[in-house]
Amino acid sequence: MVLYIYSNVIGAFVFNTDLRIIDKLLFEDKDIVNNALRLENNEWLDEEKKLVKKHGHKIIYLGKKQTELKGIELSKDDKFELVNERISQIPNFHQMIRKAGIIITKNKIKNSVKQDTLVIQAINNIDELDRVANTLVKRLREWYELYLPEFSKKLRDNEKFVELVLKKKKTELLKEINISSKKSMGANLDETDLRPITELAKRILSLYDLRKSQSDYLELIIKKSYPNMYAITGSQIGAKLISLAGSFEKLAKFPASTIQLLGAEEALFRHLKTGAKSPKYGILHEHPLVTKAKPSEKGKIARALGDKISIAVKVDFFKGKFIGEELKKELEKKFIKKKK
Fold it and tell me: What CATH class is the domain 226-339?
């Protein structure tokens, strides 16, 4: 008598020649994910081997396997539709298939978190912190200018401004900018009115501290996971490129021309739609080589950067050797020395 064996995500089943189920081993919850992966890779399951050992008849496996077990043939017959119909008739089939699907999906979601996912979250958080801090600093300056307008106008560095507001008194700040208290246009606020201003400054300073710790973390994972890209872009630009691409895998598959224009999508669409001037670079405008270059050379440098970054991310993605320093030196030799 010939028997057939077939498996899906809920269990392994043995059929007779009429394709009626005569035996089965349903998977335990803890084995569903592992068995689903093994089925996907066409590997033999422990449950299948147990059924084969139990039934000493000629058995034909309905499906594909990487190797053949002794005494088992692999069927080329198209019986899957009928077999699945038989399996769907077992008690609680729909509940079991739903449960297995939920378990497998949860595992896929869990394993979908990769290094580039963490990078994207970190750089997005840093950008949000920058936006919030800049908004609050603007409010702090307007508020503090009621008390000491000359100092606010004199010092443009936001972080330094917040630090000095907390660290020094009005008389000390006036002395730093060589203005006497009599000549200052600021109002004389009492301690009760100054307290909410300093409280706001403290909160802003804590945001700057948080941003620094997030930046340190970002640099750590970028340098460790994507060393070649890091050597050319640094942590911030590298993270923004990954975020704009959607994942590191997508970034690695982009041509150099696409990497060059990441972050300039609106300008590119405007160019395609209206014929406006085509953008020459996107987020790469933040790279030191581009920011320090003459306007006429920025596009050329961005194109060279895109080429080198494209090479670097592909080497990182395919786990190649470290060539980042070599790529960086080629860029510096071409543009920095030329400028000198």
Answer: mainly alpha
